[in-house]
Every structure is written in structure tokens, then in C-alpha cells.
Design a protein that fits this description.
Layout (H helix, E strand, L loop, with lengths): L1 H20 L7 H5 L5 E2 L4 E2 L10 H32 L8 E4 L3 E6 L2 E9 L5 E9 L5 E7 L7 E8 L4 E7 L9 E11 L3 E7 L4 E4 L8 E3 L2 E10 L2 H16 L9 E2 L27 H20 L7
Parallel strand pairs: 3-13, 4-14, 8-15
Antiparallel strand pairs: 1-2, 3-5, 5-10, 6-9, 6-11, 6-12, 7-10, 8-9, 11-14
Helix pairs in contact: 1-3, 3-5
């Protein structure tokens, strides 16, 4: 079926040329599938296995029409098969999304600095994000997580635990989701507590879910950054300026992208007890599944065939 969907139309065009150049090696398709002595409606004669060439130009025409009909049916079946496989989740939505954060930076002791959670590589619209961040609480603390100017407009969870070094922002947006190549999900405001080098990293529990009807996690890899906290302290005046900068973030959020809805309790964020293992191991490779691998391969083959013929039928 898949071969006819791709090559059938070319075979129909090549059939008459093949007959003219290699007549002795050209067969009537109907005669070839029948037993000796049976009737061939295309050639209008009984089948003779010693000579399977089309009996007339009319037979050649009917053979071409037969190939075109089979090819059209095959292409329709491939299209229907593709739709069924997509409903079943094959092929899976590819993992292309990454968290993008500045890889390094240096700040003075007590300085408040932002770390934007930028999501890039979006090929399929997304509708939910969970950003789990780990850091060394001896050197850093999270003062606030801002959702100002986030592409998301619904937030269901925001957690900050400066005792164990953990922060989470969980949110998203309704259908049709977010489809730009990249966008800001949130901004984490850190403050240096002690001098030293500290690593900030996204945990394997982080998620970016596609708006594909199945909610597949399309997060490809996790980002990390190293920050140097210098022993030089801020002056009293600089500390006051820092608090003024942070104050609008703490007291309220406004966004040019519309109203944001939050479904978490602000007064339970700082120092909340978390019944979870913060340092979770990296995801293990899923065991090989022959059935899923076959259906994934079949779905990819269907997509290739459909993409091949789309320009012919006016698709993009």
C-alpha cells in the first residue's frame, strides 16, 4: 500500500514508455494475477502465461487506469492510517524544547539579580510548563518568582524553599497554546547570601507539555548556570535600591499580555515543607517496545508520504 502510494503514479506514467522500449518484458497486470485460461477483461482474451503482454492500446490504457485507481486508493488509506495513528499518539511529538538561561554571571554579596526562564525550540504549540530549579541554599536564596510578561496566563503552583534549595513554577495557558519559537515563562530573583560559586540547575521533574491532545513532554534537555557571588557587600544605599527594584514584583503583578490567574496560596510559599526528594535522578531510558517502535516508524512513513504529495494537491 505504501509503495503504491508513492510510486504508483510514476508507474502509471512509465508503463506505456516501458511497453514501447521493452515490449517483451511488459505484462498486463490483470493477466499476471490470473491463472492460465482465465478471462482478462482488460485484454479481452483468455490468459496465456507464455505471453502476458497487453493485447492492444486499449489494454494498455486500462492497465494505466488500474494502476492510478490502486495508487489513489493506497494514498487514501495512507492518509486515513496517518489520522488513526495520530489519535493513538504515533509518531510521538518530537522533543525539541529547551530551557535557556544565562550560563554564568557574577554578583556582589546581597545583590538581587534576575534569572529569566526562557523556553526555546518550540516546534509544536505548548500549553503547560513546570520549571523545577535546584540551588545551593548556603550561597543563594530565592527572593521571588515573577510571572510578569510571561506567555502563560494561568499559574497553579509556585513554591520557594530556601532551606533545601528548591523552587518551582507551574503554569500554562488554554488552547491553542503558545506557538512562538521562544518565550519567557517566568523570572526567578536570586540573592547572594554567602560568597562562593553556586550552580543553579533545572531538575528532571521539569516538564514542557505539548498542546497535541496527548500532553507529551517535549522538553529535550535541562539547563544549568554557574554564578559567582563576590565577597564585596552592597552599601546601605545600594541595598535600599535593590528592595525598591524588587518591591513591585513582590506586591503585585501586571502583564501587558492580559489577566493572569493564580491558584496557589501566597502565604504558604516561603519555607514550605516539601515531601519530595529534591535531587531526583535523571530519567532512565525507556525499554524497547517492538509494537510502539513499529507504529512510530509507520506513522513517520505516512507523514513522509503525505508531505511528498501535499504540494501536488495544493497543500503547504
Amino acid at each position: 500500500m505504501h509503495l503504491f502510494a508513492v510510486f504508483g503514479f510514476f508507474l502509471a506514467v512509465a508503463y506505456p514508455i516501458w511497453l514501447l522500449t521493452l515490449p517483451e518484458k511488459t505484462s498486463c497486470f490483470w493477466c499476471r494475477t490470473r491463472k492460465n485460461g482465465e478471462w482478462c477483461p482488460l485484454c479481452r482474451r483468455t490468459v496465456d502465461k507464455s505471453d502476458l503482454r497487453p493485447s492492444s492500446f486499449q489494454a494498455v490504457f486500462f492497465n494505466v487506469i488500474l494502476v492510478l485507481v490502486i495508487s489513489g486508493i493506497s494514498l487514501g488509506l495512507v492518509f486515513a492510517e496517518s489520522k488513526v495513528l495520530k489519535v493513538l499518539g504515533f509518531p510521538p511529538t518530537p522533543k525539541t524544547v529547551s530551557f535557556v538561561i544565562p550560563p554564568k554571571g557574577q554578583y556582589r554579596l546581597g545583590e538581587i539579580f534576575p534569572m529569566k526562564i526562557d523556553i526555546a525550540g518550540i516546534k509544536t504549540p505548548i500549553n503547560a510548563v513546570q520549571a523545577d530549579i535546584a540551588f545551593d541554599p548556603r550561597i543563594l536564596e530565592v527572593r521571588e518568582i515573577s510571572t510578569k510578561d510571561s506567555f502563560a496566563n494561568i499559574f497553579i503552583q509556585k513554591e520557594i524553599n530556601n532551606e533545601v534549595g528548591y523552587a518551582r513554577l507551574n503554569g500554562g495557558l488554554p488552547n491553542p497554546g503558545f506557538s512562538s519559537d521562544h518565550g519567557i515563562f517566568g523570572i526567578v530573583y536570586f540573592q547572594g547570601k554567602n560568597p562562593g560559586v553556586v550552580k543553579v540547575e533545572f531538575l528532571p521533574t521539569s516538564l514542557v507539555l505539548a498542546n497535541d491532545g496527548r500532553g507529551r513532554n517535549v522538553l529535550k534537555d535541562l539547563a544549568s548556570a554557574s554564578y559567582l557571588i563576590l565577597p564585596e557587600e552592597l552599601s546601605l544605599e545600594e541595598k535600599a535600591e535593590q528592595e525598591v527594584i524588587l518591591q513591585p514584583v513582590v506586591l503585585g503583578e501586571t502583564s501587558e499580555k492580559g489577566t493572569q490567574m493564580t491558584f496557589y496560596e501566597e502565604n504558604r510559599i516561603l519555607g514550605e515543607e516539601l515531601n519530595k526528594d529534591i535531587k531526583q535522578p535523571a530519567e532512565t531510558r525507556e525499554p524497547f517496545n517492538l509494537k510502539e517502535s513499529f507504529l512510530t516508524l509507520l506513522g513517520k512513513l505516512d507523514d513522509l508520504i503525505i508531505k511528498f504529495w501535499k504540494p501536488v494537491f495544493g497543500g503547504k
